[in-house]
Design goal:
single chain, globular
Length: about 110
């Protein structure tokens, strides 16, 4: 079982649209706020075995500045997680480098 979580409504809508166009399952794509307390998600723990996180930004971190809400996204997987973002945004001098996800990217990069 897997789900896709994004903090951005526009990304969620586009992911759903693309999945529907490709005739793929689209009912497991959530905005982090709806996922957090949603009866939409059928698991008691609001978790999934695998979670794909879409956090693609190019300029301002926006939602990613909220460590609490970002933590909700990052802690929903039971077995594995795929993080989709723009490396330049999260590393080096990118605007997202001072976010929780930016911290993870820096840590993973330094330990590789």
């Amino acid at each position: 079982e897997f789900c896709i979580i994004t903090p951005y409504d526009a990304q969620r809508a586009e992911i759903v649209r693309q999945l529907q166009t490709a005739e793929l399952p689209w009912d497991r794509v959530f905005n982090v706020d709806s996922f957090q307390g949603a009866p939409l998600f059928n698991f008691l723990s609001h978790e999934a075995e695998y979670v794909i996180i879409s956090a693609v930004r190019t300029t301002s971190p926006g939602f990613l500045r909220s460590r609490n809400r970002t933590n909700v996204m990052l802690t929903r997987c039971e077995r594995g997680m795929i993080l989709v973002s723009k490396r330049d945004f999260l590393a080096g001098t990118g605007a997202g480098r001072k976010t929780l996800i930016g911290d993870l990217v820096q840590r993973w990069s330094s330990s590789a």
